[in-house]
Task: structure prediction
Amino acid sequence: MQQSANLYLIGPMGVGKSTIGRMLASALDRPFFDSDREIEAATGADIPWIFDVEGEAGFRVREERMINTLTQREGIVLATGGGAILSENSRTNLNRRGTVVYLKASLAQQFERTSKDRNRPLLQTADPMSRIRELMKIRDPLYTETAHITVDTSRRGPRTVVTEILRRLREYETPTVPDA
Result:
C-alpha cells in the first residue's frame, strides 16, 4: 500500500472499527485516528453529552467537520463513527481522499457487541435490536456506495480481519493486466 494513501474504516457500531483500525495502523506504521475520540478531544465532552445537549443534528455537524479535517491528512488510518456516512460531504471526502473499507457484521453480532455499552446514544432505547435494524436499513446502502472494499467481521477475531484487509488492499491496489 502506498505510504501517502489514507485508509478509512466505515461501518455500523460494534463491527470493530477502532480495534481493527489501531491494529492496521500498527501493521502499516501509520498514525491512527478515531473520529469520535477526536470530536471528544476537540469539544472536551463525550459523545453522549454532545447528543444530550446538541442533539444528533448538532453532533452530525461536528462529525462532518472532523471528517473533513482528518481526511486532509496524509498516510493515516481513520476509524469513523457509524453515522459518518450520513453526510454526503463526508462520503465524498472519504471516497476520494483514500481507500475506504466497509467493516460489516450481522445484526446479531452488532447487538451482541454493543448491548452493554452505554456510550452509544442511538441504542439507549427499549428495543436496541429494532434500532440496529432501522439504522442498517438506512445506512447499509450508504456504506456500500462509499466503500472500495467490504470485509465481514462476524465471528472473526481482529487479527484475522486485519490480515484479510491487508491482503485485500494489496489486491485492490495492484492493477490487473487484461489478457491480450
